[in-house]
Queue: 4 jobs
Job 1
Amino acid sequence: MLKKLICLFFSILFIAITTTITINKPVTAAVTFNSQFPNSHTAQVISGYFGKHPTDVMDATTLNATSLELSDCVLTDVTGIGIFTNLTNINLSNNSLTDLPSSMSSLTKLNTIALNLNRLATVPSCITNFTNLK
């Protein structure tokens, strides 16, 4: 009986030592520009802004950008732009935007936003979240 208990003890000890338990470790998936921006032209323009290719993974430096200068880029859709939650400045002037995606409401740190010379027919509802605009 003692032999069985000692064997059981060492078996449990061995399992405990060789098993790694990870608790509350966040799972992060690699996000490429192509996967974040459904419009291929938008993915090309934004990846190029960071000196990258649309198939590249968006790294922490990219995701923590505080400014995006995307004027005169012939953009028609900026769906996915809400991933840049640290933006304080975004220039989308002189494009062909007809509306703004609801995901832009996550850009709550914006101080300036340039939307002139687009095709916006109404004031986008996400503007109400931009309480820091100057």
Note: Residues 12 and 47 are 51 Å apart (CA to CA).
Job 2
Amino acid sequence: MAAVAGRPYLLLMDDPARPFDRRLLRLRRARAARALRNGSFLHEEIAVRLLDRLDDIRRPLGRVLDLGSGCPRLVQALRTRE
């Protein structure tokens, strides 16, 4: 793949049969993982606020589905909740 002049983040596809550059995907995933670790304080704050709001609900909640919150503390707190 060739980069567009002056914009290395824009890549032109040289081989239409190979739409994904696996090396580039690995690099992007690694960068996203680092960013997630650096931004985990936001996940923690959201978890605290969510749990605080759930304390105001009086009726018992049956099941809770976590669709990738990325916050183990939240998942554990929801599991131990009665």
Note: The longest strand covers residues 7-12.
Job 3
Amino acid sequence: MVDKSQETTHFGFQTVAKEQKADMVAHVFHSVASKYDVMNDLMSFGIHRLWEAIHD
């Protein structure tokens, strides 16, 4: 029988406990989410906003 507290998985280039991964993914998502639209504006020169307006 496998002890679940010893199970690991990969997160980027790290090996982490499986029960920690969801929290780590959530942290990355929340740290990126606030900058997502700004980066889209810069990388697409604002075209993504036109595309969103057409498809909403």
Note: The helical segments are 18-44, 47-55.
Job 4
Amino acid sequence: MDNHNQTMLNEFILMGITDLPELQAPLFGLFLIVYLVSLVGNLGLIILTKIDSKLQMPMYFFLRHLAFTDLGYSTTVGPKMLVNLAVNQHAISYNSCATQLTVFNMFITSEICILSAMAYDRYVAICNPLLYTVIMSQRLCHLLVAMPYLYSVFLSLMITTKIFISSFCGFNVIRHFYCDSLPLISLLCSDTHEIKLIILSFAAFNLVSSLLIVLVSYILILVAILRMNSAEGRHKAFSTCGSHLTVIVIFYGTLFFMYVQPKSSHSLDTDKMASLFYTLVIPMLNPLIYSLRNKEVKNALTKTWSMLLRLPHWQLGAGPARPSCRSCRPCRKLVMALKSFCHLAHITWLLRSRLEALISKMVACERYCLMLSHQPQLLQLLLLKAQAEEGL
């Protein structure tokens, strides 16, 4: 590396969020709460989708990695920003700045790709429900996650290397609250045309390609939903995609606001607010959106919370449910048979969800379980009703 680069710049100075001392304490408290909610929410989502048996599906596999990337880039930026606000210390070492730039770019690029993979997963679940478990195999899911990680590592290392092997002029104040590519490029003395071209080309490719996958997937999903005969089936399909679609709109809307607006409307304060939104606020919102809008996640959270409190699961319910019947052998056999039927590949996702709801009700209520186990014709009528409502 250039000697001038090494001797003149041992550290950088981050400008921070604000220069007003009276705002630093309130902002520290606000962003500390935001970061802690993000940390707890994403860690909880990772653990919950890992330990709960009902969340071992491709959708929740991708959700776990989305939470991991959210946690990654918010932790890359958040703690350093909080330290700067708390002790008014804005210096960051040369190597720490390079590390922060690399890790942040890696996680943000991975998230863009994982959101596209989640859109494809929703397309397969709604448009090809009979082949869902065949198409979205474990091998394909791991491939759709591994490729974004490898690509993002390559891209982030290339950008960081290109920037830090160049010569800095000696002015070390970064007009941002973290080490980002474009503010660092403005400090370079050497020709920046090649670096800017690389960054803008890859940024455009990442945004356009991922957004194209999302748009095509959701257009096909919308066509499939409009062709459904059952109003309840359409409602469940919309609710299945609602959480992911909300996250997509917030995430891409923020990125397009930052990078697509004309240069004349750019300002330092506007860029800082947009950066704060997608580095801290979006990682906080994502687990809240998925936990509040997803019934399976809410049920798993309630179940896990009841286990932590060492209380029977039925005691946390709203209704006067009774404990499960553990001594009745026909009840246990019926529940096991229904669970096995749920894992068959040829049944649709809507019928599977109805069966899982039926199993939950049987486990929670002894009388309901006994009634179905000793009256198999009633169970058959329930299954036929579910198939008829689905329009099979």
Note: The radius of gyration is 25 Å.
